[in-house]
Amino acid sequence: MTNQIRLALAQINTTVGDLEGNTNKIMEYIRKAEDAGADIVLFPELTITGYFPEDLLLKKKFIEVNKLSLKKLAIQNQKILSIVGFVDEAPDKSKIYNAAAILQAGKVSGVCHKICLPNYGVFDEKRYFTSGTQPLVFDFQGIKFGLNICEDIWVPDGVAESQGMSGDAEIILSISASPYFKQKRKERLAIASKPAKFTRSIVAYLNLVGGQDELVFDGNSFVVDQRGEVMFECAQFDEQLLIADIDISQVRAFRKNDPDYTRNKSNYKSHYQPVFLSLPTLTKNTEKKEIQYVAPAIFSEYEEIYRALILGTRDYVRKNTFKKVVIGLSGGIDSALVAAIATEALGSENVIGVLMPSEITSTASNQDAIALADNLGIEYKIIAIKEPFNNYKKLLAEHFAGKPEDITEENLQARIRGNILMALSNKLGWMVLTTGNKSETSVGYCTLYGDMAGGFAVIKDVKKTTVYKICEMINQTAGKEIIPNEILTKPPTAELRPDQKDEDSLPPYDLLDAILEEFVEKDKTIGEIIALGYDEETVKKIANLVDINEYKRRQAAPGVKITGKAFGKDRRMPITNRFRI
Amino acid sequence: MTNQIRLALAQINTTVGDLEGNTNKIMEYIRKAEDAGADIVLFPELTITGYFPEDLLLKKKFIEVNKLSLKKLAIQNQKILSIVGFVDEAPDKSKIYNAAAILQAGKVSGVCHKICLPNYGVFDEKRYFTSGTQPLVFDFQGIKFGLNICEDIWVPDGVAESQGMSGDAEIILSISASPYFKQKRKERLAIASKPAKFTRSIVAYLNLVGGQDELVFDGNSFVVDQRGEVMFECAQFDEQLLIADIDISQVRAFRKNDPDYTRNKSNYKSHYQPVFLSLPTLTKNTEKKEIQYVAPAIFSEYEEIYRALILGTRDYVRKNTFKKVVIGLSGGIDSALVAAIATEALGSENVIGVLMPSEITSTASNQDAIALADNLGIEYKIIAIKEPFNNYKKLLAEHFAGKPEDITEENLQARIRGNILMALSNKLGWMVLTTGNKSETSVGYCTLYGDMAGGFAVIKDVKKTTVYKICEMINQTAGKEIIPNEILTKPPTAELRPDQKDEDSLPPYDLLDAILEEFVEKDKTIGEIIALGYDEETVKKIANLVDINEYKRRQAAPGVKITGKAFGKDRRMPITNRFRI
Q1: Which positions in chain B touch A580 (Cβ < 8 Å)?
Q2: What is the rounded distance in angstroms from the CA atom of residue B351 to the CA atom of residue B353?
Q3: Of A26, A98, A559, B490, which residue has the fewest beta carbons closer than 10 angstroms?
C-alpha cells in the first residue's frame, strides 16, 4: 500500500462553446501536471464545453464534438491519470449527463455522472441533464478515491458521505463550477469539511475560474484534511496549477483510532450504492522534485468583490473579442468605480471616458470626472449634449403642448448620452460599459436606452453603499487618491434637473439598501419587512418601485453577480404581476 | 348508478399575482356554473395565482395568501363540486406543489398534486415544485373521475392511463395552462385522445386563456369521447363557460364490449398507484334546462396566429395598466401589421402612429404609412428627424474624423426615432410597441435602443414570410384593402441609406426564413443544415449572425410566442459563446 500521492488541481479558465480551445488548454495542463510529477490531475466541471453551455446542449452536434474532444484527450493522455469534465450521452442518445471522465493510458477508464442537479438560483441543469444514480469509487496506486461533481458535495448526507462510508474512499475528489458571490469561500470550506470530518477522508475540491456572462467563477480550489482543516488552497480569481502532496497515512490512522468514525460507520445507511472501479497502477515517477506550497492571499471583503468585478468584466469583454471599452463619466461615484474596474481589467490604454455635460452639469462634476480620468491614466473626450437636447425639445414642443417639463426631459438627456456612446461604439468598435448600481436598477432610477444602454453592466449587482465601500478600499489599498475625494464626499445626484439630489426621489441609500436586501435578495414580502421595524410607507414605495420596474431590468445588459441573488437568471419575476403584498 | 353528468369548463383569463381578482373571478364562474345546473366546474391550472408566477413562488407570503384564497373559495362553494388550481404546501412548509383542489359543501374535499413537472422550453416547474407521486381517482354521483394537471396528460403511458386503467376512471379531468404555438390544437387533441381511446374513457381538457408576458394561452378547451372524437370544444382566444352534458353509458358499453380494452386492461402495468377518494353525493338539480352546444369557429392557419398576436398584445398592454400605444410607422409591412394588430386589440382610438421621415425616406413610404393609418382609422403624427440627425453628426464629426459613413449613421437614425417614441411614451403615458419581426431579430438586422426600443415586441416571433401571409389574410378577410397594396408589393427596405434594400445585406427572405427555421427552431448545426442542401456560405453567414447577435436579443422587449421555439425563455443561449460548427 502506498501512502503518498501527488494531486494536481488544474484551476483553469475555459470558454463556453470553445471546444477546441478548451481541449488544447486541458492538454497543456496535463503536460504541466506530468512535468510536475503529479499522479492525478483534476479539471473543473464541464471542462470541455465550458460552464454553462445552456441551450447549446440541445444541439446534437455539440454533444458529438464534445465527445470527440474527450476521445482526442484520452489518446494523448498516456502518463498520468486525468479527470476531465464533459457531457456524456446515453448509448441510444436519448439522454445526456453532466459527467467526469477518468483518462488513463490512452483511454477512458471510467465515467461518473453528476447525481444532484441544481435547478434553482442561476442553475437550470434539470432542463438538460439526467441524474446519475450511483456514486463512483475507484482504486488507484493503492488508495481509494471517490469522484463527484459540484452539487453532489453540496447536498447533505449524500454522495460524498456514501463514497467515504459505503465506499471507503480515502480521498474524495470533487470537480465543480461554483459561481462567486461574496463570502462564498467560508461556505464552500464548511460544505467540503462536513463529509471530510464525518467520513475521515481528504477532500480535494477543484473549482472553475473565469467569467461567463453574468457569472464569475472565482477558483479558490482547496484540499481539506480529515479534520476539515485546509491543507492547500488556490488563488481566488486566477488560473493556477496547484500541486498537493498527500500522505494518506494520517487518514488511515484517524480511521483506526477515532471512535466517532467507527460508530458513524457502523450506523451509516445510505440510499446510494457506490460502484467500484479498480484502475491499473502506473509506473511512478520516481524522481519527484519537491514542490513548495505557498498559500494564496486572502482578500478582504470589498477587495474580493472588486476582484470579482474585474475578472467578470475582463472575461466578458475579451471572450466577446472586444479590445477597448467606453464609459460615460458623470463625475459621480458609479462611473468612477466602473472606470477603475475597467482600467484594472483591461489596462488604461483600453478605457476611454466620455464627459457629456449638459447645461445642468456643474463645473465640479466635470472637474471630478477629469481628475478621475487623470488618476486612472485613461483618455477622455468631452461631448456636450446641449444642442441635441434643445433640438429634441423644439421638435417635440407641439406634441407636448400644455404639458410641464417632467421626467421625459430627464430621460431625453440620458438617452442622448446613450446614443453618443453607442455611436462611438459602432464607429470605433468599443464596448459601452454601463454604470448603474443595484440600488437604482432595483427601483428603476435609471433610463432605459439612456444610461442603461451598453454591452455590460459592471456594477449592476453592487448596491450603492457597497459602491462607496469599494471605492474607499481602492484608495486605501493604493495609498493615494484614485477615486477623487470630492466624488466620495458629495451627495449623489443624477444631474438631470437643476439642484437634483438622489434623496429627493429615494430614501437615504443605507435605508434603501437595507430594504432592498430584504425584498430582493431574501424574497421577503412587504408585510414581513414592515414587521422587521421599517416604515410602512417607505417599504411599500420601494417594493412597488421594484415590481413595476421589472420591464426595465428585462432589457438591461448582463452584469456580474456578487450577491446571493442578482437580477437576471437568478431572479425570474414576471413583468405582468399584480402581487403587491 | 347515474349515467348523466353536467360538466362546466370555465375557460377563464386570470392575471399573475392578482390573487384577489382571480379569486373573485373564480367565484363569479362558480355561480354561473351553478346557475347553468352544472354538477362539476373545472378551472385552469394555478387558477388562484395565475400562470406562471415564476419567482413569486419563492415568497412565503405569496403561498400563504394563495392558500387563504382557496379557503375563502371553499367556504363560499356550497352547491356544486368545483376544481380549482392552486399552490399546495407541505405541512412542514419545506415543499410546494402545483395542485388542484376539489371543493365541495363548504370545504376542501381533496387535493391532487401535479406529478410530471415540465422543465424544458419555456417551463421551469422543477425550479419550484416537488412532484406528486399518486394519481387521484374520485367517485362522485356514481361516476369515477380521474383528475390530473397539464403535463400529467402529455407524458405517454403515464398518469391518465393509470387513472383509466388501474383506477377505472370513466371521465378524466385534465386542467392545464398550455401555451399557444401555431397548430397546437391538433397536437392537443392527439395527446388527449390517446388515453381516452386506450382506457375507453372521456377526457375533459380545460385550458387557460389569456396573455402573460411572452406567452399566450389560447383556451380551446375540449371534451373527447372514448373513441377520441371531439364532443365539445371552447372558442380559441376567448373566455367561455362551456357546458358539457355527458352520458356515461356509452363509456360503460364500450368497456363491456371492446375486446381491445379488455386485453389492454388485463395486460396493463403501471408504476403509479392511484389513490381513491369517495365524495358525498350532492342533491341533484332536478330542473336542468337543456343547453344547446354550439361549436366554435376554427381559425385558418394565419388567422389563428393573428388572433394569438391580438390577445397577447391586448393582455400585455391592459394587464400592465396601459391604455394607449404608440407605433413608429415607416410605410413598411412590419409596422403595418403591428398597427393592425394593435388596432384590433385595443381599438383605433388607442393607437397612435408616428411617421418619422428622414431625408432618405421616400414620398411613397410616407404616403403608404398615411394610407395605412387612414385605413385603420388611427391618429398619426409626423416628426421629421433631419435636424437631430445632422446635429449628432456635427457633434461627433471630430471624433469620427477620417472614418467613412457606415452602420453608425444608420443606427443613429433608428435611435433618434426610438428616442422620439420614448419621449412621447414618457410624456403621454403610451406604451411603445416595437415592430421587428423574427427574421431580423434573428440576424440582428435591427438597432438596439433604436427600432428595438419599446415595451412589447408584438411580432418578434413572426418570420418575415409569415408577416406577408398574415397581411394578405387580413385584406382577404376584410374583403378590402386594410394593409395598402403598395406595402405588400414593394421590396422591403430599412431606408437608413439611399437606395437600400434588405436583400443587399440579407439573403432573400424565403431562403433566410427556411434556414432560420432549421438553425433557431430545430437547433440544427451548420453542418446539418448544409447537408439538407443549402449553400454553405449562406448558412455559415446566417448562423454566425444569429450567434453574434444574442446580446441584442437579451436586451429586447418581450413578445408573443407563436412558434415551437421563440426567443426569450424558450431559447437560452449564452452570449459569450464560441461554438461555430
Answers
A1: 17
A2: 7
A3: B490
